[in-house]
């Protein structure tokens, strides 16, 4: 009896050992992932994206610009996302012949990106593993498919949404009905004079320096409207056309053929318009004061979320049992 138990124990150990060998395969290296390209972003000064538009990017004095199909400063984050795709880690790679490209929708790829002498072709995707087929040279790669939307956007989607260049130093702001000019003493002078001029000029300056549109569109034809002129410290000026005030502010740049849409407080501040106050909460005065209602019952005080405030033992129990659901900060 004991010998049979011992034999069974030995067999169990042997099976466990074989299972470990099958799973971990000692002595065999795991396949290592490799990037699509060995791209060094610092060495890239231009590249082309075809999606099916032909979009050309180039770096000017360290800043990325769209060169075609129109000229405009590019959104640096979106350009970096495109360049990061060229360094994507691959899950697998295989040699592939030209006759097999149609199987992976690479015979007529919808998107390609050319960086120097390297062209990356993006084909279809594997619906099961959610991997996209990518061709570089004669090698087929499988890459995690979480970037395609960056490649397939319209040219205007790559435009920087900031109205003025980063770090621009303003010397004058001329908007309908008001002109602000920086004098030699570093003070802003307003024409016509207005009450509380320092606060008005500061608000106007901050608004224009930080203004960022929620949307940018092409403007194929010159837009009609009142002129806006922003003078810069280098002696140049940027001119906009006030196309529309409400319900959203739209200003156009004729030299770039672009329209910028802005909403909210910033849209008002750019034109020195009063920002509407937030509507007051609809609360009953008696309730807010904690006074008795018509039935003679006194209202409980409420916290900022409208929940009754507790005190004494009830508050302690509520705090002890409260689950905030907040994640710890990194």
Largest sheet: 9 strands, antiparallel
Give the % helix: 10-25%
The helix count comes to 7
Give the distance, in angstroms, between the N- and C-terminal Cα atoms. Answer: 60 Å
| Widest β-sheet, arrangement of strands | 4-3-2-1-6-7-8-9-5
Order of helices and strands: HEEEEHEEEEEHEEEHEEEEEHHH
User: Whole-number average pLDDT?
Assistant: 80
Class inferred from helices and paired strands: alpha+beta
Radius of gyration: 32 Å
Strand content is 25-35%
Tell me the number of strands. Answer: 17
Low-confidence stretches at least 5 residues in length (pLDDT < 50)?
14-31, 283-330
Shape: elongated
Q: What can you tell me about this protein's structure?
A:
The model is unreliable at 14-31 and 283-330 (pLDDT under 50). The relative contact order is 0.08. The chain has seven helices and 17 strands. By secondary structure, it is α+β, with helices and mostly antiparallel strands. A hairpin with a 4-residue loop joins strand 15 and strand 16. It has helices at 2-24, 76-85, 148-151, 197-210, 265-270, 285-289, 313-321, and strands at residues 46-50, 54-60, 63-68, 72-73, 90-95, 111-115, 118-126, 131-136, 139-144, 170-175, 178-182, 188-191, 215-218, 226-232, 237-244, 249-253, 258-262.
């Amino acid at each position: 009896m004991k010998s049979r138990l011992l034999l069974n124990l030995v067999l169990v150990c042997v099976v466990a050992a074989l299972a470990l060998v099958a799973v971990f395969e000692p002595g065999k290296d795991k396949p290592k992932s490799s990037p699509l390209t060995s791209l060094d972003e610092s060495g890239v000064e231009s590249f082309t994206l075809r999606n099916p538009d032909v979009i050309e990017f180039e770096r000017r004095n360290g800043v990325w610009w769209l060169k075609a199909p129109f000229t405009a400063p590019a959104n640096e984050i979106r350009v970096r996302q495109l360049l990061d795709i060229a360094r994507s880690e691959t899950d697998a790679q295989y040699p592939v012949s030209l006759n097999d490209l149609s199987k992976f929708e690479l015979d007529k790829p919808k998107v390609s990106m050319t960086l120097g002498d390297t062209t990356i072709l993006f084909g279809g995707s594997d619906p099961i593993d959610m991997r996209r087929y990518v061709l570089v040279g004669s090698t087929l790669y499988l890459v995690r498919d979480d970037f395609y939307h960056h490649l397939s956007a319209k040219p205007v989607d790559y435009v920087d949404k900031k109205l003025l260049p980063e770090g621009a130093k303003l010397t004058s702001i001329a908007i309908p009905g008001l002109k602000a000019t920086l004098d030699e003493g570093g003070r802003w002078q307003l024409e016509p004079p207005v009450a509380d001029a320092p606060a008005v000029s500061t608000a106007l300056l901050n608004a224009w320096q930080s203004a960022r549109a929620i949307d940018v569109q092409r403007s194929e034809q010159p837009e009609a409207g009142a002129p806006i002129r922003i003078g810069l410290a280098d002696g140049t000026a940027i001119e906009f056309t006030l196309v529309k005030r409400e319900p959203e502010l739209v200003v156009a740049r004729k030299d770039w053929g672009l329209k910028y849409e802005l909403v909210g407080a910033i849209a008002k501040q750019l034109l020195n318009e009063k920002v509407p106050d937030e509507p007051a909460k609809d609360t009953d005065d008696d309730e807010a004061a904690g006074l008795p209602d018509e039935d003679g019952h006194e209202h409980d005080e409420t916290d900022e979320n409208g929940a009754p405030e507790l005190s004494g033992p009830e508050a302690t129990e509520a705090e002890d049992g409260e689950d905030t659901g907040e994640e710890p900060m990194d």
